[in-house]
Specification:
heterodimer, A: about 160 residues, alpha/beta, Fructose Permease, 6 helices, about 35% helix, B: about 130 residues, Rossmann fold, four-stranded parallel β-sheet, about 45% helix
């Protein structure tokens, strides 16, 4: 499978993704799954601008991403799939149950969210949705950069915002 | 030198980036020129995309700055700054900034000239061999 990294990150394409993961892991393409971005040329151009020319970016809705998943997996390059929130990832996993691992890479502070890690803040509802993903057999971990060790879902949800 | 002879100060600008990039770069600007107060340091640390954009807008309004320097083309500060520039045509965004550009700008160059200074400064220095 060439879609090696499936990540939830509210910043979508940003420095940590393009440089932090992109360079050491040799990422050749990014699949950005977001229903709003998938229908906006301006948003797509915004995200494409910071990506080096040798890295392809594909924009999909949840529906089109699920449909095109076999195509992405057949790609020999290293690929990274991104959603901006847990709800979108949950819908994608429902539409494409073959996704077996999900990394929480960055969900930042908003009212109602509690700090679990330095880079992960969650509402009780979002925590329940992550647990629901795990109950469906998806391995959920948290990891912001490749140099950090991945944390289990239990460790993530037990966090106090410091780690 | 009388007050009227004093060189015009560079316009205010925001320097935005990852971690303590802006703070660190401004400490170098301070050491070299003493003109660090022409910049407002901004970090994306711990902020979601909506919060980065909202705080950048607040910083622009509060400071009167119309120029945003950012560190990385793909960075979340750059994405937010471009969103702002979309509905604020008076705002200019410069990305990929390093110290030579900041120094050139703060010493009076216009934005294009400062960017060019930054480009020229990025060089692989050849070590003299032999002799």
């Amino acid at each position: 499978m060439a879609l090696d990294l499936v990540r939830i990150d509210d910043r979508l394409i940003h420095g940590q993704v393009v440089v932090g993961w992109g360079q050491p892991c040799g990422v050749g393409f990014i699949v950005l799954v977001d229903d709003a971005v998938a229908t906006s040329e301006w948003e797509q151009e915004l995200y494409r601008m910071g990506v080096p020319p040798e890295m392809d970016v594909f924009f999909d809705s949840v529906e089109s991403a699920a449909r095109r998943l076999p195509e992405y997996r057949a790609d020999r390059r290293v690929g990274m799939l991104l959603t901006g929130d847990i709800e979108t990832m949950e819908r994608l996993v429902t539409a494409a149950p073959s996704i077996r691992t999900v990394t929480v890479g960055g969900i930042h502070h908003k009212p109602g969210r509690v700090a679990r890690l330095r880079y992960v803040f969650l509402t009780p509802d979002e925590e329940a949705h992550l647990r629901a993903l795990a109950k469906r057999g998806v391995t959920v971990t948290a990891q912001d950069v490749p140099a950090a060790a991945p944390l289990s879902l239990d460790a993530l949800l037990a966090g106090d915002g410091v780690g | 030198m009388s007050e009227s002879d004093a060189p015009a100060l560079a316009p205010k600008a925001i320097l935005a980036g990852h971690g303590a990039f802006a703070e660190g770069a401004l400490s170098a600007v301070a050491q070299i020129t003493g003109l660090q107060d022409r910049f407002i340091a901004f970090s994306n640390m711990g902020l979601g995309p909506g919060e980065i954009e909202a705080r950048l807008r607040e910083t622009l309004d509060a400071s009167g700055a119309r120029l945003i320097f950012t560190d990385l083309p793909a960075g979340s500060c750059t994405i937010a700054a471009r969103r702002i520039a979309k509905d604020r045509p008076d705002v200019v965004v410069v990305t990929g900034v390093a110290l030579p550009t900041l120094l050139s700008f703060v010493c009076g160059s216009d934005v294009q000239a400062a960017v060019e200074q930054g480009r020229k400064a990025l060089t692989v220095l050849e070590v003299p061999r032999g002799a």
